[in-house]
TrEMBL record:
InterPro entries linked to this entry: NAD(P)-bd_dom_sf, Sc_DH/Rdtase_CS, SDR, SDR_fam
Family (UniProt): Belongs to the short-chain dehydrogenases/reductases (SDR) family.
Any Pfam family: adh_short_C2
The protein's name: SDR family oxidoreductase
Length: 246
């Protein structure tokens, strides 16, 4: 097949939806993976023939190898993997249970490892591929009350570098985008409910505003494109300067 095939996890909503839309606009067939079948169907209806979906809960680590085999049987190849799916949990440190912590780590870190491992097996055969992981400001500096999320996203950035050093000689590039505060329904709701945090966000963001989901999508597409053919192991903040703000 001459057409590129991409997987976007969490591709039916928020940042994942914007990423999926951008890849489709660039002529890439996108397979969106997510738990909410209604949202996935809606996205496919919007994007048309260059899109499809698999309703799947990535916490089911044991089911991931079969999922990737199913995609390979149907599409023949996987050229791009965007590890975007994630959950968050805002709780004071001492109130986070072992089960809370494990759940966030499983979705945000363990599933990234598991799906990447299975996809990489196919990419090694093709001697090419691009994986883009989605991190967060929670891995760039300390944010209170998101201990599990911070641990997971920090792990994603470390895994990006380790994967890049091992897999780049095999023709597979691994990069990472670390979004700052982006305008989504979830972030707007969270910040509107916490005026103190909202003021802090804007006060330390040199550009003085939140980003759009499209800003993240553009960065992801760059890493997937020929324009980034000599770029690997990079963590790129897309944050209006938030990570370096004072």
């Amino acid at each position: 097949m001459s057409k590129k095939i991409a997987i976007v996890t969490g591709g039916g909503a928020g940042l994942g939806l914007a990423i999926s839309r951008k890849l489709v606009q660039e002529g890439i067939h996108v397979i969106m993976i997510g738990r909410n079948e209604e949202k996935l169907k809606s996205a496919v209806n919007e994007f048309g023939l260059l899109s499809s979906y698999k309703a799947f809960d990535l916490q089911n680590l044991k089911g991931i190898p079969s999922l990737i085999e199913e995609i390979i049987e149907e599409f023949g190849q996987i050229d791009i993997l965007v590890n975007n799916a994630g959950i968050n949990m805002k709780k004071p440190f001492i109130e986070v249970t072992d089960e809370d912590f494990a759940s966030v780590i499983q979705t945000n870190l363990s599933s990234v490892f598991a799906i990447s491992r299975e996809v990489v097996k196919k990419m090694i055969e093709a001697k090419s591929g691009s994986i883009v992981n989605i991190s967060s400001m929670a891995a760039q500096y300390g944010i209170p009350k998101v201990i599990a999320y911070s641990a997971a996203k920090t792990g994603v950035e470390g895994m990006t570098r380790a994967m890049a050093t091992e897999l780049s000689p095999l023709g597979i590039r691994i990069n990472c985008v670390a979004p700052g505060f982006i305008k989504t329904d979830m972030s707007a709701k969270a910040l509107d409910a916490d005026p103190e945090r909202k003021n802090k966000v804007f006060s330390r963001t040199p550009m003085g505003k939140m980003g759009d989901p499209d800003d993240v999508a553009e960065a992801v597409y760059f890493f997937c494109s020929a324009g980034a053919k000599y770029v690997t192991g990079v963590v790129m903040p897309v944050d209006g300067g938030n990570s370096i703000g004072f």
